[in-house]
Design goal:
- The protein contains 15 helices and seven strands.
- It has 540 residues and is mainly alpha-helical.
- The longest helix has 36 residues.
- The chain is extended and about 105 Å long.
């Protein structure tokens, strides 16, 4: 007979030996089964799940509305078939009565029919009770845009005459810089050329998006970033401009106008003061022909965002622009919108001026863009934005006052010949890596400002801000987090709901712990279980 592995009379010892293994095995099986079979927990932050639920609810509502309409139509058709003669008689009566009634305006009958619910229908029209967006407060595209016939050319007698102590902005106007088109006034259409000679028309751009018109020339220290280190809140440099275009290129058309040089090389004089005021970039004279201005404009084209249009203000330019026929030949935009070095004009699609800045300031201009986009989306109206617009305007006024004082001091120093040497631009020059860093810094400032500004507007209107942040990761955020850490996110089927799995996991852990304890205790006891040969039994 086959040898027995257990001595007779020791069944209890046999069971005690195998108990810990059974407990360990049972705990492992329970844990594995729970992990494989447990459904994925619902994540309220999962935008895809929430969106699917909403779409399902909308589909159910649409299906119910459709069935109700079909049922009502069938009832109406059956009633009409049974009482055809009565319906014809009623129609004749209606026509007779209509002869003595006042004729309704076009569309009134259709409106009346749409606002009446079919007889016998008890279902409520849910669509009529959905919140509707506010009616847009802007007017049709270019409805407020003045024609090119309103453009003015050859102000200050330039280029025939030169700027001097009696012929400059400060001598002729109370404000320097000054603008001739104020906020809420109608902008003026224009047609200008790019460096390649392509014609660009303002009214064509407004058919697509709002337009931000920006001045900026090579000899302008504000454009070159001269004041950035001296006044950290200036936000008026070419890097700030680049970041602004980068942020809103999909929503706004950006036009950079190259016009009269503010600080040309002597003997040419500054158009603000009529004096010789040179800065490190005063290495070129004030162009007096279109081709020379085009050459100067090419010196800044690499500083601008690729999505920005670089246009050249007319200056006795090429005949392809039909000068003197469609618009004046000499500085038509600069003379019509206002003489200045770094002005900014935000034009709504209607052609009306939404915001004007004598000194461009990227952050507050970003706030103005956000306001205009909200208005043109129909989410808000001008009354809703009145307080926010005034607050932003006050913020810009403070910054503009500080910057203007700084600029005036710099002009006086430069006029006395105590400023930095002409051509000494080394400390302001940036390689591609340095320029990218400046743009990134400017973009962070823009994002922080607009995020807070937009949040306040949405909060005041009781709307959910697009910048709202949560304390938990959504599914998309988790996936992004894993990608950044070079890991693979776990599949949805492996996600376990802790509340649902807690009892089973606890039982499995109990089995494992008890099995380990019993096994430890058995190993500490004297051997009472051996094989027939006297050796220890093989482990299972």
């Amino acid at each position: 007979p086959k040898p027995r592995r257990c001595c007779a009379g020791e069944p209890e010892a046999m069971a005690l030996r195998r108990l810990p293994r059974l407990l360990l095995l049972a705990g492992g099986v329970l844990a594995a089964a729970q992990t494989q079979d447990a459904p994925a927990a619902f994540d309220p932050d999962d935008a895809a799940v929430v969106e699917n639920m909403k779409m399902g609810e909308m589909a159910d509502m649409q299906e119910q509305a459709m069935l109700g309409k079909l049922f009502a139509d069938e009832q109406a058709a059956a009633a009409a078939a049974e009482t055809g003669e009565a319906v014809d008689a009623a129609a004749d009566s209606t026509e007779t009565d209509a002869e003595g009634e006042e004729e309704l305006p076009p569309g009134a009958k259709q409106h009346q029919a749409e606002t009446h619910v079919a007889a016998g229908s008890k279902k409520h029209n849910a669509e009529s009770h959905k919140p509707k967006p506010k009616s847009p407060t802007w007017n049709p595209v270019s409805s407020h845009l003045r024609s090119t016939a309103d453009l003015t050319g050859k102000c200050f007698g330039f280029p025939t005459a030169n700027f001097n102590h009696a012929n400059n902005v400060a001598a002729k106007y109370p404000n320097d810089p000054t603008h001739f088109v104020e906020r809420e006034e109608d902008a003026i259409d224009f047609k200008l050329a790019t460096l390649d000679g392509e014609k660009v028309v303002l009214s064509d751009l407004l058919k697509e998006k709002p337009v931000l018109l920006l001045y900026g020339m090579y000899t302008c220290p504000a454009f070159q970033g001269y004041y950035s280190s001296k006044k950290t809140t200036s936000h008026m440099s070419k890097f700030d401009e680049y970041a602004l275009v980068e942020k809103y290129a999909d929503s706004v058309n950006f036009v950079h106008l190259y016009t009269t040089e503010p600080h040309p090389k002597k003997p040419d004089k500054n158009f603000d003061t009529g004096m010789i005021v040179e800065f490190p970039w005063s290495t070129i004279r004030n162009p007096k022909q279109w081709t020379d201005r085009k050459f100067a404009a090419e010196m800044i084209k690499d500083d601008l965002h690729p999505a920005e249009l670089l246009l050249i203000d007319n200056l006795g330019g090429p005949t392809m622009l039909d000068h003197g026929v469609e618009e004046p030949p000499y500085n038509p935009v600069w003379c019509s919108y206002g003489p200045g070095a770094r002005q900014a004009f935000l034009i709504a699609r209607s052609g009306r001026m939404y915001d004007v800045q004598a000194w461009f300031h990227a952050s507050t201009m970003a706030g103005a863009i956000e306001e205009l986009l909200l208005l043109e989306s129909g989410l808000v109206n001008t009354t809703d934005l009145e307080d926010f617009r005034q607050r932003r305007t006050d913020e810009h006024a403070v910054v503009e006052s500080d910057v203007s004082s700084l600029i005036q001091e710099a002009l006086m120093v430069a006029a006395d010949g105590l400023g930095e040497a002409v051509g000494d631009t080394e400390q302001y020059e940036r390689d591609s890596r340095g320029a990218d860093a400046e743009v990134s810094k400017a973009r962070v400032i823009l994002d922080e400002y607009t995020s807070k500004f937009v949040d306040q507007i949405y909060e005041a209107k009781g709307l959910v801000s697009p910048n709202a942040e949560t304390n938990t990761y959504s599914t998309s955020q988790l996936e992004t987090k894993f990608v950044e850490e070079d890991n693979t996110p776990p599949p949805a089927s492996a996600v376990i709901s802790l509340s649902a799995a807690a009892p089973v996991v606890g039982l499995a852990a109990a089995f494992i712990v008890v099995g380990a304890v019993v096994r430890r205790w058995r190993q500490s006891q004297p051997d009472s279980y051996h094989s027939v040969s006297g050796e220890d039994a093989d482990e299972i």
